[in-house]
Amino acid sequence: MQRKEPKCRCEKRVVEKSTGVCRLYSRLQSAYLDILQGSEFIESIQCNVPLDGFSMGEYTSDFLCKRKDGTFMVRECVERRFLTKPMVISLLDASRLFWAKREVSDWGIVTTQEKADA
């Protein structure tokens, strides 16, 4: 999840499954976009979808994807180290409820992988 007008690095990319330019604010978002673009099950991708009427302020969901079977899925990209922060947990839970009210039941979190200790 991002604020509606983030003040950080932005990578702009055009991909086949998305109309318009995808604005990516982290390496995790960029890597996951590549996975979505390569998936045969995904028909279209929307990046940074505004959560209009969101109870916690002006935020966007990272990815809203339409599958080839006509169903939708939402993915929020969060680095693993931020998953213990109360504000992040609150935002993610509110996002899940936001999309559930709009009958999108396939909501998930994409995180970075933990590195094994040597």
List keywords for this structure.
5-stranded mixed beta sheet; 118 residues; 7 strands; alpha+beta; 2 helices; two-stranded antiparallel sheet
Summarize the structure in words.
By secondary structure, the chain is of the alpha+beta class. Helices cover 24% and strands 33% of the residues. It is built from two helices and seven strands; from the N terminus they run E-E-E-H-E-E-E-H-E. Strands 1, 4, 5, 6 and 7 form a five-stranded mixed sheet that branches. A two-stranded antiparallel ribbon has the order 2-3. Strand 4 (42-50) and strand 5 form a beta hairpin. The radius of gyration is 14 Å and the shape is globular. The termini are far apart. The mean pLDDT is 88.
Please give a quick description of this structure.
The protein is α+β, with helices and mostly antiparallel strands and 118 residues long.
What series of H and E elements makes up the topology? EEEHEEEHE
**Helix share, percent:** 10-25%
Cα(first) to Cα(last) distance is 32 Å
Number of strands: 7
Contiguous uncertain segments of 5+ residues: none
Structural class: alpha+beta
Rg estimate, integer Å: 14 Å
Shape estimate: globular
Determine the mean pLDDT. Answer: 88
Strand content: 25-35%
Main β-sheet, in a few words? 5 strands, mixed
- Count of helical regions: 2
